[in-house]
Design brief:
Blueprint: E1 8-12, E2 14-16, E3 30-32, H1 35-42, E4 47-51, H2 65-71, E5 74-77, H3 101-117, E6 121-124, H4 126-134, E7 139-140, H5 143-146, E8 163-168, H6 173-177, E9 183-187, E10 193-194, E11 202-206, E12 213-218, E13 226-229, H7 246-260
Parallel strand pairs: 1-4, 1-5, 5-6, 6-13
Antiparallel strand pairs: 2-3, 7-10, 8-9, 8-11, 11-12, 12-13
Helix pairs in contact: 2-3, 3-4
Length: 262
């Protein structure tokens, strides 16, 4: 396929902030994407493009996030650092949950740029939490602390081999994507979760053991596609018994293709 015919999907950047004590890239800010999310985007032939933040101490030129939103066909918000409680009007319960407010502000502005351009957005893990916060929702800063009876949603000793079941809400788009699959198995690598759902979004999946929200979507054909899941579909391995990632990716890319063709 010619490059011009391929979808161009932006991936938000993770930040490694300047650290004078770091041996490599001493005092430099790094922006990067995880290989697995880039490979996931490229798995059906789309081009993956990291969107660097145009602001910062070394800012030059006149490039804006709107330029990227106008040029690209869709946006994936991927995992990483905690969303800062400051971004939803709270103080950190502990310093280790202070999150990355600089990345929050960049990604909130990025989502707004894609909204203005009418382009679809899909969130993964932190991406779900960021979308919720961007539109006025709040989070549990730490599930184990604030909901001590909840399921263990993160186990550092096994990382992406921690699993649990989720129930898909009947009548939702997610239910249409997985017909007949009421309860599915997902990987679980998060210690924060949605507390108050943002206005305009609906819940598409929940953890049946504790009621935590596992997937959201903003319905309505009049506004750009926005959906997100709390698990990592890019970590799905063929032949495993976790929920297949293909339907989620295909649905998002179909939305991107539809916008391009209008």
């Amino acid at each position: 396929m010619d490059a011009s015919a391929r979808l161009k999907i932006g991936i938000s950047a993770c930040f490694m902030h300047a650290d004078p004590n770091r041996a490599l890239f001493t005092g430099k800010t790094l922006q990067y994407v995880e290989q697995s999310i880039a490979h996931w985007v490229m798995s059906t032939g789309s081009l993956a493009v990291m969107i660097p933040s145009p602001t910062g101490a070394t800012q030059r030129g006149d490039v804006t996030l709107d330029h990227y939103a106008q040029w690209l066909d869709g946006l994936v918000l991927h995992g990483g650092a905690d969303v800062s409680p400051l971004s939803y009007g709270e103080q950190p319960l502990q310093e280790k949950w202070a999150g990355d407010k600089i990345r929050d502000e960049y990604e909130i502005d990025l989502v707004a740029a894609f909204e203005r351009a009418g382009k679809p957005v899909f969130g993964v893990c932190r991406g779900l939490q960021l979308l919720n916060v961007a539109y006025g929702g709040t989070l549990y800063q730490d599930i184990a602390t604030q909901l001590p009876d909840a399921l263990s949603h993160r186990d550092a000793s096994v990382y992406d081999r921690n699993f649990h079941g989720v129930e898909i809400v009947a009548g939702t788009r997610l239910a249409q994507l997985y017909p007949g699959a009421k309860r599915v198995k997902v990987n679980s690598i998060h210690h924060q979760a949605i507390k108050d759902l943002a206005d305009g979004f609906v819940v598409e999946a929940v953890s049946p053991d504790d009621g935590l929200i596992e997937a959201i979507r903003r319905p309505g054909a009049a506004r750009p596609y926005m959906a997100a899941v709390q698990w990592h579909p890019e970590f799905h391995q063929q032949g495993s018994d976790t929920i297949d990632d293909a339907a989620l990716l295909d649905d998002f890319l179909a939305a991107a293709r539809g916008v391009r063709n209008t």
